[in-house]
């Protein structure tokens, strides 16, 4: 896809079809929320979901299950992002911490402690916990989604929960 | 997709932590405001490198390295930088958006009249010891060497990886130890005893022929064994001398074996070396003495091909136009090679050839590269109060040099490979200068110099601008140590979509 600005004269991407736009409106909010739980930044979540839609838009005619494609693409982009962030953070700490999302009610306030504890976990373990307990995916489904072995997913869930218990009892 | 019966979540069986976790995630997601947007296929994401809307007069160099122009490492840095600018842009949007510079380029760096000549300079960072490739394909010579030291990394609760290898370096024998805090379950396997502790052996999930798993001293230990039978491996493991907290092997008592790595962490020295050949092909080799860290290595092990010595080779096709090979070692060393037209075996060979290089060697390499750069044709020479900026290259910028008045030029290669822009950080006598240049008038009004950080230090940073030869240039000398924050990028619809970060070269 060519990237152009309003002043540019280069070939623009094909305009999205009404079906694509409907899918965008229907799927985007939930995908952004899932991505946010994985990368913990609303701005980055929006960008990664946008990237997933861009990739779908390129392959629109070939994708048989667009919602499934979007979920897989979003999760993998988030995992890749997390991995790269982790590798780069020691060298160049450019990304400022995301502004906290204020708690809306008592349940949200209670959730804050768990959210903060979750943020202190190893990202690989944290990510599988999100997929397991937010999206209710099975170990096998998480493995298929992330390209890991089922045993790896199971171990990460087990150890992630153990880590979480330690964090919230500190 | 349906998992096994015991793998399906049963809310009634969940304990309090699991219930709270599920509730917390759903509450958090519920409370996240998601604005209603219309999909714009022309708006790049932070993972997309926008292309300029016009080319240099010569028709535009796609560069020897095509595509985004990033190395695997630098692409990651640029992505991080893009995230920073994206986040910053959100703030700007709330504040009414950034202003355009008088020359029409997008600029948020406050103007000043001159670069101060004599503030107290920060301490000049050491150059090396770093890691440099000792083997290159025929015909490639160094163009530039940039060294970036960074503080020590700390991963207190992370797993520890250590490798036992024969003293003689005999092929095919090694034991990779993965030491995790806390006791762990064994899973399925054949029971055995390791150093007096119950454990199991099982087919290897990792790098070796088989694994030996046991708990000892409050740690869960997995030994991935290559080239040893079980009896020999158990004899070897029984000779380990543990550090006090049992999270680390202090030494090995078996004759003929040594501990090959110490992943305790430490400061990182990153070296980015750019090479080119007579045909204009460009090759970038980035190395780090401790960049990967333990978490990163874990991830790479899952993605890549494990080697008998415990290292892992990852062929990255994140950007198909820019094949990348990364080799990482358990002790944190890593090498990333990017070069179009080279196969994976060649890039792997380059990565595996890295060896430590001290100050003198790195300086000599860099001096040679700058001499080579100085021989390049000049695209533009622009005068600013502080001195002269020269953009060198042929169809596109191969490098940029800043010559302070009365001083020798200090240069940096176009390691990002953009055809119409270049940015560089130059340390001269310990004082950081940032130089960014773009093709004048050939880019959109939304494309130019951008601020890549929310740091307040830039508010006081003086800026000098000049134009000539179809190029425009910005030079700044930020105060203090906040000198990594200038870039060249684009803003579309008020959102910063891309920028290049700056590696630093010391003059």
The geometry of chain A reads as globular
Low-confidence stretches of chain A: 1-13, 87-101
| Distance linking N and C termini of chain A | 50 Å
State the order of secondary-structure elements of chain A, H for helix, E for strand: HHHHHHH
Please identify the oligomeric state.
heterodimer
Describe the structure.
- The complex is a heterodimer of chains A (170) and B (507).
- Chain A is mostly helical.
- Helices cover 67% and strands 0% of the residues of chain A.
- In chain A, helix 1 packs antiparallel against helix 2 (42-58), helix 1 (18-39) runs parallel beside helix 3 and helix 5 crosses helix 7 (150-168).
- The model of chain A is unreliable at 1-13 and 87-101 (pLDDT under 50).
- By secondary structure, chain B is an alpha+beta fold.
- In chain B, 16% of the residues lie in helices and 35% in strands.
- Chain B has helices at residues 16-30, 72-94, 230-237, 293-303, 344-352, 359-374, and strands at residues 130-132, 141-150, 160-166, 174-181, 190-194, 197-203, 210-216, 219-226, 240-242, 249-252, 257-259, 268-276, 282-288, 305-306, 312-316, 324-328, 334-338, 355-357, 378-384, 387-393, 397-404, 410-413, 421-428, 431-439, 447-451, 463-468, 471-476, 486-492, 495-499, 504-506.
- In chain B, the strands form seven sheets. Chain B has a seven-stranded antiparallel sheet with strand order 2-12-13-17-16-15-14, with helices on both faces. In chain B, strands 5-6-7-8-4-3-11 form a seven-stranded antiparallel sheet, covered by helices on one side. In chain B, strands 26-27-24-23-30 form a five-stranded mixed sheet, with no helix packed on it.
- The longest helix of chain B has 23 residues, at 72-94.
- Mean pLDDT of chain B is 67; it is low at 1-13, 49-126, 151-158, 442-448, 450-460, 481-485 and 490-507.
- The interface between A and B is large, with 92 and 87 residues.
């Amino acid at each position: 896809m060519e990237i152009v600005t309003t002043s540019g004269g280069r070939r623009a991407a094909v305009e999205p079809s009404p079906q694509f736009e409907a899918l965008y409106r229907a799927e985007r909010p939930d995908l952004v929320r899932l991505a946010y739980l994985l990368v913990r930044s609303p701005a980055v979540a929006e960008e990664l979901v946008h990237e997933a839609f861009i990739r779908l838009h390129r392959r629109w005619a070939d994708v048989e299950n667009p919602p499934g494609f979007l979920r897989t693409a979003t999760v993998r982009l988030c995992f890749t992002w997390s991995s790269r962030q982790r590798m780069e953070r020691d060298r160049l700490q450019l990304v400022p911490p995301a502004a906290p999302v204020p708690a809306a009610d008592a349940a949200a306030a209670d959730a804050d402690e768990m959210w903060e504890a979750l943020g202190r976990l190893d990202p690989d373990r944290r990510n599988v916990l999100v997929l397991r307990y937010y999206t209710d995916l099975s170990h096998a489904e998480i493995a298929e989604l992330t390209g890991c072995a089922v045993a790896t997913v199971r171990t990460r869930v087990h150890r992630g929960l153990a880590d979480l218990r330690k964090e919230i009892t500190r | 997709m349906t998992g096994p019966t015991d793998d399906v979540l049963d809310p009634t069986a969940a304990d309090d932590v699991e219930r709270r976790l599920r509730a917390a995630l759903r509450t958090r997601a519920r409370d996240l405001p998601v604005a209603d947007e219309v999909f714009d296929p022309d708006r790049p994401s932070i993972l997309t490198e926008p292309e300029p809307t016009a080319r240099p007069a010569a028709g535009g160099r796609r560069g020897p390295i095509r595509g985004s122009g990033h190395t695997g490492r630098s692409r990651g840095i640029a992505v991080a930088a893009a995230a920073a600018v994206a986040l910053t842009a959100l703030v700007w949007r709330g504040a009414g958006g950034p202003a355009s510079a008088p020359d029409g380029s997008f600029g948020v760096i406050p103007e000043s009249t001159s670069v101060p000549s004599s503030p107290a300079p920060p301490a000049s960072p050491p150059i090396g010891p770093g890691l440099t490739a000792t083997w290159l394909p025929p015909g490639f010579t160094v163009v530039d060497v940039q060294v970036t030291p960074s503080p020590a990394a700390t991963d207190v609760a992370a797993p520890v990886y250590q490798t036992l290898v024969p003293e003689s370096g005999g092929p095919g024998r090694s034991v990779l130890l993965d030491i995790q805090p806390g006791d762990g379950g064994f899973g399925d396997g054949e029971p055995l005893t390791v150093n007096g502790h119950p454990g199991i052996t099982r087919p290897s999930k990792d790098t070796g022929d088989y694994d030996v798993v046991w708990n000892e001293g409050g740690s869960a230990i997995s030994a991935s064994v290559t080239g040893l039978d079980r009896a020999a491996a158990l004899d070897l493991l029984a000779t380990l001398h543990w550090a006090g907290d049992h999270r680390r092997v202090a030494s090995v008592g078996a004759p003929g074996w040594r501990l090959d790595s110490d992943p305790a962490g430490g400061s990182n020295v990153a070296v980015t070396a750019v090479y080119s050949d007579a045909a204009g092909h460009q090759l970038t080799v980035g190395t780090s003495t401790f960049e990967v860290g333990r978490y990163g290595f874990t991830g790479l092990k899952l993605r890549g091909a494990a080697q008998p010595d415990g290292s892992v080779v990852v062929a990255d096709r994140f950007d198909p136009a820019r094949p990348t090979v990364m080799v990482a070692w358990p002790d944190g060393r890593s090498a990333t090679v990017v070069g179009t037209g080279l196969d994976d075996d060649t890039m792997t060979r380059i990565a595996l050839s890295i060896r430590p290089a001290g100050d003198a060697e790195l300086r000599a390499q860099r001096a040679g590269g700058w001499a080579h750069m100085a021989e390049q044709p000049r695209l533009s020479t622009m005068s600013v109060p502080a001195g002269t900026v020269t953009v060198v290259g042929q169809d596109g910028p191969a490098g940029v040099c800043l010559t302070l008045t009365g001083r020798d030029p200090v240069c940096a290669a176009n390691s990002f490979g953009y055809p119409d822009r270049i940015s560089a950080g130059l340390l001269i006598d310990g004082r950081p200068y940032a130089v960014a240049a773009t093709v004048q008038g050939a880019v959109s009004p939304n494309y130019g110099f951008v601020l890549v950080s929310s740091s307040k230090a830039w508010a006081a940073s003086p800026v000098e601008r000049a134009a000539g030869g179809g190029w425009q240039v910005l030079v700044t000398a930020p105060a203090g140590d906040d000198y990594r924050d200038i870039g060249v990028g684009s803003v579309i619809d008020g959102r910063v979509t891309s920028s290049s970060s700056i590696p630093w070269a010391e003059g």
